[in-house]
Amino acid sequence: MKKTILLLALAGSFFFTSCESFLDEPLKGEQSSETIFNNVDDANLALTAVYNNLSFTTSSNMIWVFGDVASDDAVKGGNPGDQADIGSIDNFEVKSTNGILLTYWQFTYEGISRANNVINGVYNSGIDDATKQQMVAQAKFIRAYHYFNLVNIWGKVPLRLEPTSTSNVNLGLSEVADIYAQIEKDLKESAAVLPATYDSADKGKITKGAAFGLLAKAQLYQKKWDECIQTITNNVEPLGYTLESNYANLFKLGAENSKEVLFAVRHMSNKNPGVGNSLNQWFAPLVENGYYFNAPTASYVASFDETTVDGKTDPRLDISIGRDGHDWVNGVPFDPTWSVTGYLVKKHNQPLTEVPTGTKGDGGLPYIYMRYADILLMKAEAYTEKGNLSDAVATLDKVRARAGLDKVKAVSQSQMRSAVYTERRREFGFEFHRFFDLMRWGQEVATAALGPNFKWESPRYYFPLPQTEVDSNHGIK
After folding, report:
1. How large is the greatest C-alpha to C-alpha distance in the chain, in angstroms?
2. Are strands 261-265 and 321-322 parallel, antiparallel or unpaired?
3. pTM exceeding the 0.90 threshold for the entire prediction
4. Chain centroid to CA 32
């Protein structure tokens, strides 16, 4: 496979010149795997392709379907006849031939393949050791991020750690514990060498805080309460992250630079090739040339049943969604007929002054995967499971205070669990985490939330492997 061509999806503009000998010019925009890692500039193009695969520029990144639509926070929305496979996931009538399963599977393994190519190529290159370590660390984080999503959607999946070749194309399923072990290994190795911050020229690259934050999350999901707390206390908190004073600022242009953000996927409007955020169109109303998918539920709205200390509605509700009696992102009154539920997501939508209807799918908002509020609520959850309620309350109250809520009154472990679960739902609504939270919290919580169509399967519910993968990968038994 030495002659394999790496197809790079690069965020940038390509410039062409014409001349009489144009047809004699070597093909531009492609590099062979023998040459791409020979110097830092070319290797960085390959690393850019790894980052680019994280984006929501195309419809391939469907993590919102699993995180939101499969949960009790949202239904499919949209035109009833459009994207029927999303509806099947919404109703837990999912077959292995479901197109969304295959789309997201291919999306994640494309990202893993790009990361593996960089890791392998840079390791074997003549690039200086310091630069090599930084590039490999970034690629390992992204590989770990993809595997974290894969293992939480499907459970056992093929653990590909080398560039794909004829010798390893048929690869069997790895155990969940082994996948998590690799995730932790990649993240620890990344965190050991990544910087805490970058200068302005490298803003957006993976940081030490991102690696430690995702490590803490992986530990939480494995019920490693002590390790999760230690990672946060010893490695994340000393890096100086703080809560953004105004919750609304996290969902505006430039939010990726917030002091609260550990890891965000960046987008830019008006670029060629396009690197904009298509969620701006997926979730917008039809009157704005949107598809009005991912429609919030009345159940989500009802979770905001607690007023602030001054008697007002928790501000996170109307920052997160559009509803009757309140303004939409454009400053016009929200019309509940825009949605099948009477509600639409605001967090990923921009006003028409920023993104007009003609380019609705070219948004500039980042997707913030992890922020400091998540770190605090993970720590509160781990404290709760250990029975350390005083520290759990103190940590949880930091997040509640920003929303203007009074201190939590939980006096038992079960009450504290409920308080943490509710706070996560309010804080991270439509940030694509809810379904995975429900799975982590177990059968009783998940079954109560997801309704009669949902059937818990021990050790937890996993979606079926895409049939195309089962048919083509002869390593899967």
Report:
1. 81
2. unpaired
3. yes
4. 31
**pLDDT tens for the 477 residues of the chain, in order:** 333 334 333 333 332 233 333 344 555 556 666 678 988 999 999 999 999 999 999 999 999 999 999 999 999 999 999 999 999 999 999 999 999 999 999 999 999 999 999 999 998 898 999 999 999 999 999 999 999 999 999 999 999 999 999 899 999 999 999 999 999 999 999 999 999 999 999 999 999 999 999 999 999 999 999 999 999 999 999 999 999 999 999 999 999 999 999 999 999 999 999 999 999 999 999 999 999 999 999 999 999 999 999 999 999 999 999 999 999 999 999 999 999 999 999 999 999 999 999 999 999 999 999 999 999 999 999 999 999 999 999 999 999 999 999 999 988 999 999 999 999 999 999 999 999 999 999 999 999 999 999 999 999 999 999 999 999 999 998
Give, for 432, the enclosing helix (H) or strand (E).
none
127: exposed, middle or buried (C-beta count within 10 Å: 0-12, 13-18, 19+)?
buried
Q: Which residue has the tokens 């908002």?
A: 365
Token pair of 420 as six digits: 């943490």
Q: What single-letter DSSP state applies at residue 363?
A: B
Task: Write out the H or E segment, with its range, that includes residue 296.
Answer: strand 293-296
Long-range contacts of 160-169 (CB under 8 A, 24+ apart): 160/109, 160/112, 160/113, 160/116, 161/116, 162/116, 162/120, 163/1, 163/4, 163/33, 163/113, 163/116, 163/117, 163/120, 164/1, 164/113, 164/116, 165/1, 166/1, 169/473
Of how many residues is the chain composed? 477
263 strand-pairing partners: 370
